[in-house]
Amino acid sequence: MRSDGQLVFLNLNAAATRGVEVEFEGKYRSGVSSRISYSYQNAIDLTTSAPLVNSARQLATANVTAPIGRQLIGAMDLHYVGPVQTLNGSLADRFAVANVTLSTRPFSNGLSLSMNVSNLFNSEYGYPGGDEHLQNIILQDGRTFRIGLKYAWRTSP
Predict the structure, then answer these.
(1) Which helix (H) or strand (E) holds 66?
(2) Which residue numbers in the chain have pLDDT < 50?
């Protein structure tokens, strides 16, 4: 932040990240697909040797998508984020969030529907705030429901 109170974003002089990531994906004749991934990283500011703010060392994701009958598709995903360094030097807690979605394949008229529940288990979690925020950790939404309606049309060639 400048002396006049204006917030200015600047790149670090030097940063380094070392880590590893693995991912497995499967697609089956039944139409079921799945994916699981895990990454571990150590990101540091080379000037101060401090961990980078808002850079989790561990991330993991798993998702499964499956047809339900001829017209419906179900999906579930799970995301894990390890502890994250905040601006004031504390750590935001690790968390896991699950989401589920039920959607239709497009009908012949181009219309499709979807229903989603985000944060299925109503986990309490937050992400580190930035210099522009009053909070050190910004709490995220609890369980959220969404209903979607999509219409796709074709244009003549």
Answers:
(1) strand 58-68
(2) none
